[in-house]
């Protein structure tokens, strides 16, 4: 209140900035509330739990690796992982060496006959490499044996692989007497033709599909 010259009083002037208005929330003022503290604690607890589970998974994997490899029970983690990497490289090298001698059957009939590098046409007993792929059938091996006997070929190495009703034969022969590559090709081609003439193309396809399905079901 202000006193005027005549002694009367007038209402005091109140600045708009001092007038009462809405009270801002503590969060608006940057002050943490109890709920904020609770959320922070829950978040920290969740992070700690996730980290604990992650460490348990890692330790479980390391324990499995220790069981797979010999003499690794007292290795530290770095040495164990290095040993695992070295073992995998060695396994990969061995698998590569083994795969050189293994060939899977293809979907098309194939025939190839050639002289080996260790043999020559002029040698007394040349080595001949032959490989062919065809539909598998009961009399295939018997027909093949008769063809080889008629040519007086001695088997030095043989590798036979089957998959889904197809068979691949890889041989190295030694000729007991002079025989040309062309003659061997014709004899083996006759074996392949004998098998293809024994059943129609549709029957062969149906049989192969059944064998593939049986092979796949056998895997599970």
Automatic annotation (TrEMBL):
Span list, region Disordered: 1-58
Domain of life the protein comes from: Eukaryota
Pfam families, sorted: HLH (PF00010)
InterPro entries found in the cross-reference section: AIG1-like, bHLH_dom, HLH_DNA-bd_sf
Domain BHLH: 42-91
One GO MF term attached to the UniProt entry: DNA-binding transcription factor activity
Coiled-coil region list: none
Compositional bias segments (type: Basic and acidic residues): 46-58
SUPFAM superfamilies assigned to the protein according to its UniProt record, in alphabetical order: HLH, helix-loop-helix DNA-binding domain (SSF47459)
Keywords carried by this UniProt record: DNA-binding, Transcription, Transcription regulation
PANTHER family tied to this protein: TRANSCRIPTION FACTOR BHLH30
Protein name as annotated: BHLH domain-containing protein
